[in-house]
Amino acid sequence: MMEAREYIESGILELYVFGILSDTETEEVSAMAEKYPEIKAEILSIEKAVISLSFSMSPYLSAANYDRIRTQLLAKHGVEEGVVEMKPRSNVALFIGWAAAIVLMIGVGYQYTQLDAVKEEVVVVKAENSDLEKELNSLEIDKQKTESVLAIIRDDNNTVVALGGQAVSPESKAKVYWNKETQAVYIDAAGLPEPPEGMVYQVWALKLNPLTPTSIGLLEDFKANEARLFNVNSTGEAEAFGITLEPAGGSVSPTLEQLYTLGKV
Amino acid sequence: MTQEELLPLILKKDDKAFTLLYDMYSKNLYGIIYNLIRNHEESEDVLQEVFVKIWKNIESYNESKGRFFTWILNIARNTAIDKLRSKGFNNTQKNLSADNFVHLLDDSNKLSNMIDTIGIQEFVKKLKPKCIKIINLLFFKGYTQQEASEELEIPLGTVKTQNRNCINDLRTFLQV
Q1: Which of B25, B33, B43, B64 to mutate to test the interface with A (most CBs of A within 10 A)?
Q2: How far does A25 lie from chain B, in Å, by closest CA?
Q3: Domain count along chain A
Q4: Sheet of A212-218: strands edge to edge?
Q5: Do A180 and A120 fall within a single domain?
Q6: Per-residue pLDDT for A121 more than 90?
């Protein structure tokens, strides 16, 4: 007890609280304070006195400093935003918070519209893709058609009969591909004008002595057949072929006034 | 809220901890800083610097180094003195000793101070001149015993005891 009393009266504790002792002396006083509760109590009293003194000596300190320092710490030194600030300080931190929230919302909104745009784009691309697929399919079909047309025309067993234009349409021409092997008959009508509405071309196989026309078919859907290559019925023994323009559905016997082309085998 | 309760919160860098720390000590530190700097704007800059240092270096504080209040008091004084030196006050020493903290009372905006501080301000004005001088040098300006002994031209051993007597007068008035 005597030791502690003397220690206290020496005035070292005041210097300890003021923070002007050497590190060694400071550690010594800290150790003494741990050892003697009355020393610790004395230190606390001295501290209270100088805290009151420095507080009451302080000039006016604007509240703006609180926000300034807090913002500084927030920006650089990791003050966690965990606790709701209840005191009505200035609005700087609040403003920054709201500004950040608004920026975030704008960002999210922008991303959302971007997402929408991308989604729309995907739909468009998908549709385009599907269109292209269809186009590709139809090209494949066209190609197959062309190939089969070529196969028909190039067949070595074909007898090709050229039909020349007649009085009603001197510019017209056509070809008959008559496959003696398969008896298939194809008409290449690329040289014929489009038939008027309600009319159709009719193909006739002719025997010349006596002149006996036999209908072997109509060139139906003339416009739609882009290759203008028509399959018609087979014929037995034909000596010539003729094509007349007849009313839709065809006629029993050819209307000779409307004979467009004619050719001998 | 005591220093012992505040410390763990500051270590967690809790937002509330800063508010508590500021409310507890900003005026004390500002009083110390302003007494050295004597310029409001620069003192506010130093105060900010001090809080940043406390916040950044809190991990390096432990109780063997003294009281937490003492630790932040030293940061405040050292930062203010560094500021004075960086500002090129060649006669820093003279500047440090020319005025004492009692002059702060004339600069102060009295309306801003709480009613309960008016009493202590009146008391401080009536402190013995040698007490004002010694508290000013040791507590407010952080002089060592040796420096104070030279400045006041009193024996080294007398510095400690005279200071204790002056602080005792203050404690009697404050009843602490």
Answers
A1: B64
A2: 10
A3: 3
A4: A212-218, A199-207, A240-247, A259-264, A158-165, A174-179, A185-188, A229-232
A5: no
A6: no
pLDDT exceeds 90 at position A243: yes
CA pair distance A183, A185, nearest whole angstrom? 6
Cβ contact, residue pair B19, A65, below 8 Å: no
* In a domain? residue A243: yes
Q: How does pLDDT run across B97-153, given as a tens digit for each residue? A: 456 777 666 554 444 444 456 677 778 878 888 999 999 999 999 999 999 999 999
- Asked whether residue A65 is assigned to any structural domain, the reply reads no
Q: Is A98 exposed, middle or buried (0-12, 13-18, 19+ CB in 10 A)?
A: exposed
Residue range A140-176, pLDDT digits in tens: 887 887 787 788 778 888 888 999 998 888 899 999 9
- The hierarchical CATH code for the domain B1-98 is 1.10.1740.10
- Whether residue A210 is preceded by a cis peptide bond, meaning omega within 30 degrees of 0, is yes
Parse chain B into domains and list their residue ranges.
1-98, 100-176
HSE-up of residue B133 (Cα within 13 Å, Cβ side): 14
Q: In this model, does residue A82 exceed pLDDT 60? A: no
Q: A122 is in which domain, residue-wise?
A: 90-154
* Topology at the third CATH level for domain B100-176: Arc Repressor Mutant, subunit A (1.10.10)
Does A76 map to a domain? no
Interface of B with A in 2-61 (CB under 8 A): 12-16, 18-19, 22, 26-32, 34-35, 40, 44, 47-48, 51-52, 55-56
Q: Where are the alpha helices (DSSP H) in B12-67?
A: 15-37, 40-57
Residue A101, domain member (yes or no) = yes
